[in-house]
Amino acid sequence: MRAQAIDRDGSLVDDFRLSAHGHVTWVRNAPSRAATSSMAIAEELVTRAG
Fold first, then answer.
1. Backbone phi, then psi, for 42, in 5-degree steps?
2. Distance CA 25, CA 48 (A)
3. pTM of the model
4. Is 40 helix (H, G, I), strand (E, B) or coil?
5. Are 13 and 6 within 8 A, CB to CB?
6. Which residues have CB under 8 Å from 27's CB, separation 6+?
7. Element containing residue 4 per DSSP (H, E)
8. How far is it, in rounded angstroms, from Cα 46 to Cα 42?
9. Which strand (E) or helix (H) includes residue 28?
10. What digits encode the pLDDT tens for the residues 1-36?
């Protein structure tokens, strides 16, 4: 069992959600595959920060 993010319409969020505001970026809803996708997430964050 794990926590699962839910959209405003009540549907389950099955993928990563990245949000940014100014110099702050949030990684929300990192599902269990986050460990195997950590490098891809890091690349995306570096690209956004660039």
1. -60, -45
2. 9
3. 0.59
4. helix
5. yes
6. 16, 17, 18, 41, 45
7. none
8. 6
9. strand 24-28
10. 667 788 899 998 877 888 889 888 888 877 666 567
